[in-house]
């Protein structure tokens, strides 16, 4: 065959491949955009990626690399600093919002937006949990659970228990040698939330449940591939095991009530079983179990991770550590001699420690996004979000925006001195009617832990240069392998 003929064949093959790639890349455009008619021309800029996979591959690749922010950075570099981008993620045509104004609007406008979590996530957390129920059901259940979790009386009551378990755990850790600091903190915060909801402190039950939750969380941010060996498949099995355990606990508690067997104290499980609406309708077992799955998960993961990162950051910045420690010493110094332990009033006077916690929440951004769905066609920032499309509120971009926070990846508690971020610029617990219901409890746990740690203990990391991983949540690869030591001048 002549050289010219070979070149023509190669050019032909190359042309076919180019056309084929264009056709494949255009599949999502044809499936989801052309159906919108004239509205497609007012969609936000963006790229809907490959068929079925969409942008998930680039998202997962970025968050499994050393630079998770490269995912959104790629959209910005290609389409400009618009703060809103069309994508195809978690099986749905979606819009990512990254500006404070857009994030606030999506989170607070209940007339235009409702929860839009992926079906795969709802299958793991539960269709009767807060992420799956209607606005009216959410309001009713939030009223029920708010006071027992975040109310002043409840927080005052929990303070003593949290302090006891924190001090006993810290003392125990000093005798254990090398520990995974994050793992032990998650066990600690899990024990606290178990006490609040189930009055249970069974080590065997807690260890088993905490292990299942770890598996569950790895599946929440994974691709929904229900095939053995994949994270989502393992997470579904974990969900099944959790449901079976909680079903047994619910049945036992209902049987106790039938024969009037008193419990140690009235906990959240009792409240969920007893509550009824104005028509006498009570929660079903499925309702209660899904609420437990959600609350016990959210109630320990964020607190454990935040306490770990706050400790690490303070350890890396001795000047901040000394300032935080001095504040705690002053609180103890001013305490009446007859007072034993912390009070909620003292915790609310920890001004500098509160800044340390807020700065940790900002830098780490435990939840990188939440999901909403447009209830109707919505105009946002000059673009159209079609009815039924998902909206991903990208907290990470807001918290690390250099236009809002100078040197945003730098841990600097003093940035909060006389600084109130504009609406939508600080969203560690979300916003609007679906603001995280356990936010005050989480900050209480972290404050009590840091109070005692700063006064009496030191962190010695064994791998201070351990790289971070970002899914399902930001953490050191080694789970912060460390030794906990008592301070030479410890008051313990």
TrEMBL record:
PROSITE patterns: CYTOCHROME_P450. The keyword Metal-binding applies. It is found in: Membrane. Keywords: Heme, Iron, Membrane, Metal-binding, Monooxygenase, Oxidoreductase, Transmembrane, Transmembrane helix. It holds the Pfam family p450. Pathway: Hormone biosynthesis; Plant hormone biosynthesis; gibberellin biosynthesis. Gene3D superfamilies: Cytochrome P450. GO terms for biological process: brassinosteroid biosynthetic process; brassinosteroid homeostasis; gibberellin biosynthetic process; sterol metabolic process. GO terms for cellular component: endoplasmic reticulum; membrane. Heme binds at residue 436. GO terms for molecular function: ent-kaurenoic acid monooxygenase activity; heme binding; iron ion binding. Its cofactor is heme. It is a single-pass membrane protein. Catalyzes three successive oxidations of ent-kaurenoic acid giving gibberellin 12 (GA12), a key step in gibberellins (GAs) biosynthesis. GAs, which are involved many processes, including stem elongation, play a central role in plant development. Belongs to the cytochrome P450 family. This is Ent-kaurenoic acid oxidase. The lineage of its organism: Eukaryota, Viridiplantae, Streptophyta, Embryophyta, Tracheophyta. The gene is LOC115987237.
């Amino acid at each position: 065959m002549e050289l010219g003929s070979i070149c023509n064949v190669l050019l032909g093959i190359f042309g076919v491949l180019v056309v084929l790639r264009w056709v494949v890349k255009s599949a999502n455009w044809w499936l989801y955009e052309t159906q919108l008619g004239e509205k497609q021309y007012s969609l936000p800029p963006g790229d809907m990626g490959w068929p079925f996979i969409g942008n998930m591959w680039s998202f997962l690749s970025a968050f499994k690399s050393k630079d998770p922010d490269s995912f959104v950075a790629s959209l910005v570099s290609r389409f400009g600093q618009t703060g809103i981008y069309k994508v195809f993620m978690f099986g749905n045509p979606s819009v990512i919002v990254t500006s404070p104004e857009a994030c606030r609007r999506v989170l607070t406008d209940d007339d235009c937006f409702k929860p839009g979590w992926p079906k795969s996530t709802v299958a793991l957390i539960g269709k009767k949990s807060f992420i799956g129920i209607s606005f009216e059901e959410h309001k009713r259940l939030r009223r029920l659970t708010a006071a027992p979790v975040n109310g002043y009386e409840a927080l005052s009551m929990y303070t003593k228990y949290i302090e006891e378990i924190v001090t006993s755990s810290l003392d125990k850790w000093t005798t254990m040698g090398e520990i995974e600091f994050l793992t032990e903190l998650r066990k600690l915060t899990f024990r606290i939330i178990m006490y609040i909801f189930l009055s249970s402190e069974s080590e065997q039950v807690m260890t088993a449940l905490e292990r299942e939750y770890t598996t569950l969380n790895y599946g929440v941010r994974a691709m929904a591939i229900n095939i053995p060996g994949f994270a989502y498949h393992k997470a579904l099995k974990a969900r099944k095991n959790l449901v079976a355990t909680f079903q047994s606990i619910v049945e036992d508690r209902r049987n106790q009530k039938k024969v009037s067997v008193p419990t140690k104290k009235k906990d959240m499980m009792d409240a969920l079983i007893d509550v009824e609406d104005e028509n006498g309708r009570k929660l079903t077992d499925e309702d209660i179990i899904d609420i437990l799955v959600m609350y016990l998960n959210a109630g320990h993961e964020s607190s454990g991770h935040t306490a770990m990162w706050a400790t690490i950051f303070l350890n890396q910045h001795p000047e901040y550590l000394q300032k935080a420690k001095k504040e705690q010493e002053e609180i103890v110094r001013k305490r009446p001699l007859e007072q034993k332990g912390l009070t909620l009033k003292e915790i609310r006077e920890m001004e500098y420690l509160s800044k340390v916690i807020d700065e940790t929440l900002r830098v780490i951004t435990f939840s990188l996004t939440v999901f909403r769905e447009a209830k109707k066609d919505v105009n946002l920032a000059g673009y159209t979000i079609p009815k039924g499309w998902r909206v991903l509120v990208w907290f990470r971009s807001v918290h690390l925006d250099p236009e809002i926070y100078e040197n945003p990846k730098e841990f600097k508690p003093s940035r909060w001195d006389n600084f109130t971020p504009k609406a939508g610029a600080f969203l560690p617990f979300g916003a609007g009617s679906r603001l995280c219901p356990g936010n005050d409890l989480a900050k209480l746990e972290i404050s009590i832990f840091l109070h005692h740690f700063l006064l009496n203990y030191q962190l010695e990391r064994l791998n201070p240069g351990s790289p971070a991983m970002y899914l399902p949540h930001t953490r050191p690869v080694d789970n912060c392998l460390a030794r906990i030591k008592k301070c030479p001048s410890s008051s313990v």
